[in-house]
């Protein structure tokens, strides 16, 4: 009797399935039992082939070779994964394998990962689908008892291939035509370009903003019950005429008044939802200043290497009911791992299951929210980043099983000489879930107001006017950009597409961090602390896209339109052929428009000088892979590569190095021995680039300077 080969998307899932099925031997690259082999992908192993894989002439980026529109898309292994695909291929072709089970993640992308592997190997063996939305033992057993025929997922696979192929058509042709036309590397794509457009739109709002002065009037009142502060209001809480503000100040100064409205009520504040990846990245950015990528890397480590959290690349903030036992285990584990004061009461599973803000099967599809697995946490063995991310996840997990926080809110409306002043206070009465975050009863968000009943006589003890001005909208941080990407439907006018994009947005939780990093890598964005700032190159690209115009590239609307049709394909109401033909037609239109666009100085604006060459004094400009002297053809050797020991050097860092001789401290360099380190880049004699460690002003014993070559070998 032959065996069944199970292919999962990641090794951790393979091990979880093996535990449930039982009696497996670890063969290092796969697991084996009497009936099964289990092996794994590591995400995507196979990708669509590059243009030059179709014809060698496509290796050159020329306008007359565009657009590139394959009749049939070819597949190729991702280079770093060639060994793994060979292992899977050998198992598929093994004589004792009679059937295959697709155990990749339940969803469109998981289906694509398996289908590309299956098609690349050329297998004709029958396969079934294991559809897992939870990794608990009962859920795995239930899914094995309800294996789906492979053909049942054919429409999902068609939609997945359409998404992949259409991204290839737009990305490859768009990037090549813009780059070839304007002679500077201009990367474009369905997701990254609209994301950049969101940032550029905000930057233009900031640049065009003109502050408007306004005045606010405050007063201090005394009453038999105590003193309190109030703010003038008349529809708005400000005036735009200084003279009017001063007149109100003089009018009420020292006058008597009375309380005309008083309210004292208690309000309930529900616990937050559990984390999905995007919300975890937002909080880590707000609290710790972590980039989305840094948070994802830490979460992935806690999931794969430490087994401390569930699958992190999720877009759900809910749990399925069958996870209640795992939740109980997690609660009991945290009692022994530093959260004993917060877990003194036994976990009430019956009560927890009634909370639809936590347990809701209808809100869980591919994966559930991120929670602790129940494995013991050895905090001392975790790195600093991992400790911070784990602490966030543990506290959020605990908080959702606490009651609502209860606030006492008071509001007083005071009238003096027919002028009204509003006073508000908010005090925490019962901390509820906020206790998890260190809040206690009596915590105040503002000074608590006295009990001043309606009709209470008051005296105006003091009045003052504060001059202020309106502020430009803030630049995006990674936290606010992640929110904008998730809620990109608000940038779309079509209401139907808005609804569709509520479920998707721009990118996915798993890809948004990479999109932000890609925009930085290609020089469209620069990161300054928590803030993301579009570069001149990024701004000019969006100006260019809008002026051609190829608005489809800069608007989230294209993603909404695609998603609508991909959903129809999954339902059998739209064909793959129709979809790809539409994308090919759109690609041809975009390529034709870009070819016809004259260069009205856009390239010069995008490629402004980074500084003066430290060797010959000529301008240094940015190209595809470096910041280099424009006299390189004449023999000037000055080049600052954009990638140094695995770290991307931004335009602003390059400018600082060339103009000031050194950068600020840069983190993330990686030596040949795999050690990460941080240092300043410095200009050395002859235009060479070196590293400087510790303070550049106060020389210490352990200060050191080394060349790139010396440091990379350590």
TrEMBL record:
| GO terms under cellular component | cytoplasmic replication fork
- Cite the record's Basic and acidic residues compositional bias ranges: 700-714
Q: Which UniProt keywords apply?
A: DNA-binding, Isomerase, Magnesium, Metal-binding, Topoisomerase
Enzyme class, spelled out: isomerase
Family, as annotated:
Belongs to the type IA topoisomerase family.
Q: Which domain of life is it from?
A: Bacteria
In its keyword annotation, does this UniProt entry include Transport?
no
The record's annotation in InterPro entries points to: Topo_IA, Topo_IA_2, Topo_IA_AS, Topo_IA_cen, Topo_IA_cen_sub1, Topo_IA_cen_sub2, Topo_IA_cen_sub3, Topo_IA_core_domain
Is Thylakoid one of the keywords UniProt gives this record?
no
Q: What is this protein called?
A: DNA topoisomerase
Domain (Toprim) ranges: 3-136
Pfam families named among the record's database cross-references = Topoisom_bac, Toprim, Toprim_Crpt
GO terms (BP aspect): DNA recombination; DNA repair; DNA topological change
């Amino acid at each position: 009797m032959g065996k069944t080969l199970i292919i999962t998307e990641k090794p951790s899932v393979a091990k979880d399935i093996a535990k449930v099925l039982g009696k497996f031997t670890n063969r290092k690259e796969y697991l084996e039992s009497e009936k099964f082999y289990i092996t794994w992908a590591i995400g995507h192993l196979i990708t669509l082939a590059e243009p030059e894989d179709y014809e060698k002439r496509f290796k050159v980026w020329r306008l007359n070779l565009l657009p590139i529109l394959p009749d049939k898309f070819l597949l190729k292994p991702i280079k770093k994964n060639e060994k793994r695909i060979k292992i899977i291929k050998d198992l598929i072709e093994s004589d004792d394998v009679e059937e295959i089970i697709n155990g990749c993640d339940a969803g469109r992308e998981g289906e694509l990962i398996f289908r590309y592997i299956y098609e690349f190997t050329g297998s004709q063996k029958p396969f079934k689908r294991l559809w897992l939305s939870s990794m608990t033992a009962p859920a795995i057993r239930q899914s094995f008892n309800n294996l789906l025929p492979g053909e049942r997922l054919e429409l999902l696979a068609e939609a997945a291939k359409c998404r992949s192929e259409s991204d290839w058509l737009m990305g490859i042709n768009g990037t090549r035509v813009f780059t070839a036309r304007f002679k500077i590397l201009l990367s474009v794509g369905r997701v990254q370009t609209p994301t950049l457009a969101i940032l550029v739109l905000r930057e233009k709002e900031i640049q065009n903003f003109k502050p408007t002065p306004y005045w606010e009037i405050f007063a201090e009142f005394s009453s038999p019950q105590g003193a309190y502060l109030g703010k003038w209001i008349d529809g708005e809480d400000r005036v735009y005429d200084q003279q009017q503000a001063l007149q109100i100040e003089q009018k009420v100064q020292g006058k008597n008044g009375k309380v005309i409205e008083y309210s004292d009520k208690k309000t309930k504040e529900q616990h937050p939802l559990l984390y999905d990846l995007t919300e975890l990245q937002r909080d880590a950015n707000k609290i710790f200043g972590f980039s989305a990528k840094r948070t994802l890397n830490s979460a992935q480590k806690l999931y794969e290497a430490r087994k401390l959290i569930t699958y992190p690349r999720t877009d759900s903030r809910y749990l399925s009911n069958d996870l209640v036992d795992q939740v109980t285990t997690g609660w009991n584990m945290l009692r022994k791992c530093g959260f004993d004061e917060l877990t003194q009461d036994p976990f009430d599973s019956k009560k927890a299951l009634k909370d639809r803000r936590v347990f809701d099967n209808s809100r869980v599809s591919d994966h559930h929210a991120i929670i602790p697995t129940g494995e013991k946490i050895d905090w001392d063995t975790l790195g600093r980043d991992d400790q911070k991310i784990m602490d966030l996840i543990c506290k959020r997990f605990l908080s959702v099983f606490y009651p609502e926080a209860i606030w006492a809110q008071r509001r007083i409306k005071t009238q003096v000489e027919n002028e009204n002043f509003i006073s508000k206070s908010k005090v925490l009465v019962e901390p509820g879930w906020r206790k998890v975050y260190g809040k206690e009863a009596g915590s105040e968000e503002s000074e608590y107001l006295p009990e001043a009943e309606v009709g209470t006589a008051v005296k105006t003890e003091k009045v003052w006017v504060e001059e202020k001005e309106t502020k430009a909208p803030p630049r995006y941080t990674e936290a606010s950009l992640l929110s904008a990407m998730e809620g990109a439907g608000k940038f779309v006018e079509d209401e139907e597409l808005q609804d569709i994009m509520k479920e998707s947005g721009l990118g996915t939780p798993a890809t948004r961090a990479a999109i932000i990093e890609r925009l930085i890598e290609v020089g469209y964005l620069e990161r300054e602390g928590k803030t993301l700032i579009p570069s001149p190159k990024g701004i000019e690209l969006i100006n260019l896209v809008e002026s051609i115009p190829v608005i489809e590239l800069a608007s989230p609307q294209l993603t909404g339109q695609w998603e609508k049709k991909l959903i129809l394909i999954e339902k059998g109401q739209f064909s793959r052929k129709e979809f790809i033909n539409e994308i090919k037609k759109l690609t041809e239109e975009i390529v034709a428009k870009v070819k016809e666009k004259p260069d009205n100085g856009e390239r010069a604006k995008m490629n402004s000088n980074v500084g003066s060459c430290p060797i010959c004094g000529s301008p240094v400009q940015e190209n595809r892979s470096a910041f280099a002297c424009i006299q390189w053809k004449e023999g000037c050797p000055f080049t600052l590569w954009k990638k140094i020991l695995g770290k991307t050097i931004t335009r602003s860092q390059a400018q600082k190095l060339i103009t000031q001789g050194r950068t600020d401290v840069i983190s993330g360099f990686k030596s040949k021995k795999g050690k990460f380190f941080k240092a300043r880049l410095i200009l050395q004699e002859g235009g060479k680039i070196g590293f400087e460690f510790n303070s550049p002003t106060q020389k210490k014993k352990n200060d050191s300077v080394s060349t790139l070559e010396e440091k990379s070998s350590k």
